From TrEMBL:
GO molecular function, one term: protein disulfide isomerase activity
Record organism: Rotaria magnacalcarata
Thioredoxin domain location: 3-134
Coiled coil ranges: none
Cellular component GO terms held in the UniProt record: endoplasmic reticulum membrane; endoplasmic reticulum-Golgi intermediate compartment
Gene Ontology BP terms: protein folding
PANTHER family: ENDOPLASMIC RETICULUM RESIDENT PROTEIN 44
Name of protein: Thioredoxin domain-containing protein
One Pfam family in the UniProt entry: Thioredoxin_6
Leader sequence segment: none
C-alpha cells in the first residue's frame, strides 16, 4: 500500500514537473540576456494578457515551443520565449513594442529587422522556425554551381579549406545574421575551385550580373566577425529599398517617414539616379527617413491624392504618415543639397508650414508645379493626407498600446 502511494506521488510530481517546464520560456529582465546569448535563434512572443489576440495566440505558441523542443534537441540551437509586456515594460520599451502580440526573432543575440507577420497557426509558425534553423549558405560543389547562381541576385561568395575552420564558422554566423538581406554561397572543394582560391581562403561580393561590375574582395580578417559583418551589411543592405504591397506594413511599422521615388517599372535610370543622390546627400539621414522606390503603376492611389497620374512619372514624394509632400522639380534632384533640404524641411516643419502659408513670391509657382488646376484651391491650404498610413499594422490582428 505504501509502495503504491509512493509511486503515485512520484508520478504526480513528475507530471507536474513536465507541465511546469512545457511551453514557451517565460522571459524576464533577469534571464533575457542569458537566453539570447546561449541560443543561435530565439523567437519571442511579446504579449499582453488583456489583449484578445494575445489570448488566442498563447496556447498555440506554447504548442509551438513543445514541438520545436521535441524536434530540435541540440542545446543552444533554438529557443521559443514569451514576454509579458505589462510586467516587463522595460523590455518592451527597449524593443519598441507597441502592438500585441508582436513576434520578434533574434539571431546570435541580435534582433532581426523583420517581425514575423505570417499566419498564427502551429504549422505556419513551425515552418517559419524550421527555415530559420536551416543553413542559409548555398553549397557550391562544382564550378557549374558557381556559374549557375541566379544572375538577378547579388551574392557574398566564400571559398574555404573546410567547414570546421574558424573562417568558415565566421562566414556561417554572418550568413545567419544577414540571411534576410544577403545571399551567401560557399565552397570547400579545393580541387574544383583552385582558380578562385589559389592559396588561402577568400571571400568576395558579386553584384547583379546585369550591372557588369567586377567582384569586390573582402580584405579584412576572415575570422573577424564584426569586420566581416559590417562589410557584408554595406554590400547587401541597400540605402533605397523597393516598397510593395507585400512589405508596406513592415516598412510603415518601422515608424520612419517615407521618401519615395514613384517611377515606371522599366525606368531604371531614374532609380539609379535616385540611389546615387540618396547616397550622396542623405547618407546621414537614413536613421530619420526611409528612402524607397515604387512602381507608380501599382501605387496609383497616392498619385491621385497628389493630383498626378502615371503620365507625370517620375515623382519624388515624402509621406509623413500625416500628409504627403511633393518634391518641386525632379530635374533638380542632382543639384547639391536640394534633396537634403527637402528632407530637413520635413523635420523642421517647414514643408507643412509652407503648404498652409506659402511665401507670396512662390505661391503661384508652387500651385502650378504641384497640382492640377482642378484641385489647386484644396491643396493650397491642405497638403494631401497620407496614403501609406492606411497600410500600417491592422487592428484586426493586433491590439495597440494606445487602446489602454
Amino acid at each position: 500500500m505504501h509502495q503504491y502511494y509512493f509511486i503515485t506521488v512520484i508520478s504526480f510530481a513528475l507530471l507536474n514537473i513536465c507541465y511546469v517546464w512545457s511551453g514557451a520560456i517565460q522571459i524576464t529582465s533577469s534571464n533575457i540576456d542569458s537566453v539570447l546569448s546561449s541560443h543561435q535563434v530565439v523567437f519571442i512572443n511579446f504579449y499582453a494578457n488583456w489583449c484578445r489576440f494575445s489570448q488566442m495566440l498563447n496556447p498555440v505558441y506554447d504548442q509551438l515551443a513543445d514541438k520545436v523542443s521535441n524536434e530540435y534537441s541540440e542545446q543552444g540551437l533554438v529557443a521559443i520565449g514569451k514576454i509579458d509586456c505589462d510586467s516587463e515594460s522595460s523590455i518592451s520599451t527597449k524593443y519598441h513594442v507597441n502592438k500585441y502580440p508582436t513576434l520578434k526573432l533574434f539571431r546570435h543575440g541580435i534582433l532581426t529587422k523583420r517581425e514575423y507577420r505570417g499566419a498564427r497557426q502551429i504549422d505556419a509558425l513551425y515552418e517559419f522556425i524550421r527555415k530559420q534553423v536551416e543553413s542559409s549558405i548555398i553549397k557550391l560543389s562544382s564550378r557549374n554551381d558557381l556559374t549557375g547562381l541566379d544572375s538577378k541576385k547579388s551574392y557574398i561568395i566564400g571559398h574555404f579549406n573546410d567547414e570546421k575552420s574558424e573562417n568558415y564558422k565566421t562566414f556561417s554566423k554572418v550568413s545567419n545574421l544577414l540571411r534576410d538581406e544577403c545571399h551567401f554561397a560557399a565552397s570547400t572543394n579545393l580541387e574544383e575551385f583552385q582558380t578562385e582560391r589559389p592559396t588561402n581562403d577568400i571571400i568576395y561580393y558579386r553584384s547583379l550580373q546585369s550591372l557588369n561590375k567586377k567582384d569586390e574582395f573582402y580584405i579584412g580578417l576572415l575570422n573577424n566577425h564584426e569586420s566581416f559583418y559590417v562589410w557584408s551589411n554595406e554590400k547587401c543592405v541597400p540605402l533605397v529599398r523597393e516598397i510593395t504591397f507585400e512589405n508596406a506594413e513592415e516598412l510603415t511599422d518601422e515608424g520612419l517617414p517615407f521618401l519615395i521615388l514613384f517611377h515606371h517599372v522599366d525606368d531604371h535610370q531614374s532609380v539609379s539616379l535616385f540611389e546615387r543622390e540618396v547616397a550622396k546627400q542623405l547618407i546621414h539621414e537614413t536613421s530619420n527617413i526611409n528612402c524607397l522606390h515604387a512602381d507608380g503603376a501599382k501605387f496609383v492611389h497616392p498619385l491621385q491624392h497628389l493630383g498626378k497620374t502615371t503620365a507625370d512619372l517620375p515623382l519624388i514624394v515624402i509621406d509623413s504618415f500625416r500628409h504627403m509632400f511633393l518634391f518641386p522639380d525632379i530635374k533638380q534632384i542632382s543639384v547639391n543639397g536640394k534633396l537634403l533640404q527637402f528632407v530637413q524641411d520635413l523635420h523642421s516643419g517647414k514643408l507643412h508650414q509652407d503648404f498652409h502659408n506659402p511665401p507670396p513670391s512662390t505661391k503661384q509657382t508652387k500651385i502650378q508645379d504641384n497640382v492640377d488646376s482642378a484641385v489647386n484651391g484644396f491643396l493650397k491650404s491642405n497638403p494631401p493626407e497620407s496614403v501609406f498610413v492606411r497600410l500600417t499594422p491592422s487592428r484586426q490582428r493586433y491590439s495597440f498600446r494606445d487602446e489602454l
